[in-house]
């Protein structure tokens, strides 16, 4: 297991070994959040734009809301869920959700109706007008222009 220090001084544990990733242990907290007990991260259950226990209820036009990177950051910071502070996850944090034995490559029991591509907060180290996203159709990470539109799932900011 590799320990990574993020810009926000938080520590998250990640490993590229897909077998270890598949062993992640999730708990539905019953309040629209999912806890990953492997690394202590707390996730928004539904993507931005989705509602309901199975994330099939929709706020806007019947599907998860896609947005550019700047709006994704704003949306997470303004999320009113459980009365706590939320943010856009880092690339490393988002990659912990990849589960290669599922299709899409995420545990759909805990993250139902997941779309394909999700923004991370991580900016590309050589191209500052690009940020990383995780493509759950394949489980891979890519970068693209921040003006591109992808889906958003927020993560709880630790105290």
How would a crystallographer describe the biggest sheet? 3 strands, antiparallel
Order of helices and strands: EEHEEEEEHEHEEEE
Count of runs of 4 or more consecutive helical residues: 3
| Helicity, as a percent range | 10-25%
Beta-strand residue fraction: 25-35%
Determine the N-to-C terminus distance. 23 Å
Word description of this protein:
This protein is an alpha+beta fold and 159 residues long. It has 3 helices and 12 strands, in the order ββαβββββαβαββββ. The chain has helices spanning 18-22, 69-77, 91-95; strands at 2-5, 11-14, 26-28, 33-36, 41-44, 50-51, 57-58, 86-87, 117-123, 130-135, 140-145, 155-156. The chain has a 3-stranded antiparallel beta sheet with strand order 3-4-5, with no helix packed on it. A hairpin with a 6-residue loop joins strand 9 (117-123) and strand 10 (130-135). The radius of gyration is 14 Å and the shape is globular. 33% of the residues are buried. Residues 1-23 have low confidence and may be disordered.
Fold blueprint:
Layout: E1 2-5, E2 11-14, H1 18-22, E3 26-28, E4 33-36, E5 41-44, E6 50-51, E7 57-58, H2 69-77, E8 86-87, H3 91-95, E9 117-123, E10 130-135, E11 140-145, E12 155-156
Antiparallel strand pairs: 1-2, 3-4, 4-5, 6-7, 8-12, 9-10, 10-11
Defining key terms:
alpha+beta, 3-stranded antiparallel β-sheet
In short:
The protein has 159 residues and is α+β, with helices and mostly antiparallel strands. It has helices at 18-22, 69-77, 91-95; strands at residues 2-5, 11-14, 26-28, 33-36, 41-44, 50-51, 57-58, 86-87, 117-123, 130-135, 140-145, 155-156.
